[in-house]
Amino acid sequence: MDHVFIEGLEIEALIGIYDWERRIRQPLVFDLEMRFDNRVPAATDDIADTLNYKAVSKRLVEYVSQSDFGLVETLAERCAEIVLREFDVDSLRLKLSKPGAVRGARAVGVVIERSRGG
Ligand SMILES: Nc1nc2c(c(=O)[nH]1)N=C([C@H](O)[C@@H](O)CO)CN2
Question: In what residue span(s) does the Dihydroneopterin aldolase/epimerase domain sit (predicted)?
Answer without folding.
Answer: 4-114
